Amino acid sequence: MRVLLIQPSRYRNGRLDKRRRRWLLGITLPYLAALVPSDIDVQIKDDLLEDITFREKADLVALTFMSHQSNRAYEIAAGYRRQGIPVVMGGFHATLAPEECQEHADSLVLGEAEEVWPQLLRDFQAGRLQPRYQAEKLSDLKNLPVPRYDLLDLKKYKLLNIPSQTTRGCPFNCNFCEVTQVYGGRFRHRPVDQVIDEIKEIRRLTGSEFIYFVDDNFVANRRHAMEIMEKLIPLKLIYGCLTTASIGDDPELLDMMARSGCLHVNIGMETISPESLKAINKKQNKINDYERQFKSLRNRGIGFSVNVMFGLDGDHLDIFDNTVDFLIRAKAPVAFMFIMAPRPSTKAREELLREGRIFDHDWSNYCGFKAVYQPRHMTPQQLEEGYWRANRKFYSFQSILQRQTPHMYSLHMLPFNLYFAWCVRRRLQPQDYYF
Prior knowledge:
globular, 16 helices, 435 residues, six-stranded parallel sheet, Rossmann fold, alpha/beta, pyruvate-formate lyase- activating enzyme
């Protein structure tokens, strides 16, 4: 039996996005491949980098995707189903929009895959494939397999930072985010020794000295994170992770991050507007603390980037210039800016639908740089124009020079700033760096 796992690309302004190389690789498909029983042949295909011919030899095709990729996913599914090959769909969009996805697939995997994905494959082999599979409970994250990075052509990735995961779940329930609905409202943690064993195996298989922890908050459980970092020290690796800005208030934690090889932290700052923070229910962020917290990272030589979201209900027309002025003053090395995309089943989408403010239901436009709803204090056109203006201003040469510091990580970030400056001048998203 042969299973083909596909990562769909997306449509950008009506054209299918195709490239020769990605910046970063993802964890999802290599991890799903690792869950496949050993007697089943499994392959991975990346639609962004490779052509989908619909002549690939496969008994079953599985697609996992986000909302902005769904149109392409449905197109791929239709092509294989016309060939008589059953299609399975999973991932965030399938989990949160199952009725829609069911129209395009023979079976769905809803939520986490550890328990149900192997069962689906056995059912398919036995000729009793069910329309939906969903685990009765969330995974305890014990004894997880090492992702099959050996199935990827690693030469097609510009930065060989290999993903690993130590936690899942989030209790904060921000209204624009799906994580709590898919992974649950509490943090779950992998056993520390199993995380370290996986990292050692990843290093052996790939030769990479750079790990990227894909947890939504790597330091969600301080003790757990400290134990992992303590055991990373003798490995002499470098790593990146996602955290909240509040790490800047914990000197001991920051010192451990610096000692254990942390090169970069991505922070969900979202906004400098108190009204907007309240609108998205992001209570954990404290705007008045941002500059001090960022300085604490800089003082330890830890690089960081911030995520910024525009179009929130507290945003007025001055939010764009005010945000960039703040980021320049705070010497943020990199900023990834987005227009909020009200994806399926999020509280933000439910509120906007209830108020009749969503006017665009084409998932391809839920990409982070299109206005698909009516903002409260500006027009959709003003939102898009402000978004691009903020990007151009932040990545202007004057801004890049103003944000430079004597720290080594600032020099490391300079090439990325110049690349992002090139992107925004061509109306390309800097966050395409991730894809």
